[in-house]
Amino acid sequence: FARLRESPFDSDSIHPALSASPTAAAALARMNAAIDVRGVLAAISAPTLLVHRRNDARVDPDASRFLAKKIPNARLVEVPGRDHPIWTGDVDRVVDLIEEFLTGERAVAEAERVLAALLVTRIYDTARLGDRMWSQRSQRFQETWRLLVGRHGGRTAGMQSEMMMSRFDGPARAIRCAAALRGAAQDIGVASAQGVHVGEIQMRGPPAGLTVRVATQLAAQARRGDILASRLVADLATGSGLHFTDAGRIALEDLDGPLALVLATSEQHLEPTGRPKSKAGGPAALTARESEVVSLIAAGKSNAAIAAELRLSEHTVKRHVANILLKLDLPSRAAAAAFSVRHAGPDGP
User: Fold this and answer.
1) What pTM was estimated for this model as a whole?
2) Which architecture characterizes domain 113-265 according to CATH?
3) What are phi and psi of 160, to 5 degrees?
């Protein structure tokens, strides 16, 4: 069976060819609506399979339920989705049902498919920058996106307008890359929202199918600065040091039931909870490297940007930040930035 695949990164939508005038189209619609085959349904003796999407946007599923009752030994299968044409939505599921009905055997899973974490990054303009400035910032972010995806061991998988997709071998890498991209977006001055999901994708060609659609919908649902992921991402990232908070559930068209969601939060610094509180120190309490880090914090740079500038890992920068806050007895990065400004000398704090 030849399978039709659709990816949101290939085209905005599928537009049917306009092959009739409005008058002819209306006449055709009236003619089709007048067709009545109810009187012959009981005479059908051929094996019959009825496939109907539960939330079909054009035809009520009750129509297929009626046919299933009237056609002897007919089988009705209702699948998730709202698309009416067979070539849109979850095509694979429909084709698998047809293949099994015609051959008597279940479809063999494709061998060239792998489990991957997909990250969809969406940027948008909330400051009404104007076309020229937005174009410049958008292009700068896209260049940074390619750099950071590669740095986190991922691959760029597609880009359409302000929507970018990348794939990773594991969810922890995808989440860490998303956090770095969020910081980069803040530095560049654009708004970002991201979605992460784990599932099977084909090894060759641009990713397509259910995993792509879910990740894309999560990015569309995410609010500014959010990294919204499926619960499966958090389950698979256990032990990675990443932290997640529950974000409820969402009903998606292609899924049988609601999808559990989580929000990726900043990694917590692993300091002993019982450690006695030390007396706040001054600039002299910081090492030379910590002084560099706090100066860059004051400059408004994210951990990812500091890591890139100092050629350190992001984890090392986070450790430096934790030590700075501990030594200076400060509650947050903002407080560290204010400290740096107050104590700045010719060569920094």
Assistant:
1) 0.51
2) 2-Layer Sandwich (3.30)
3) -140, 115
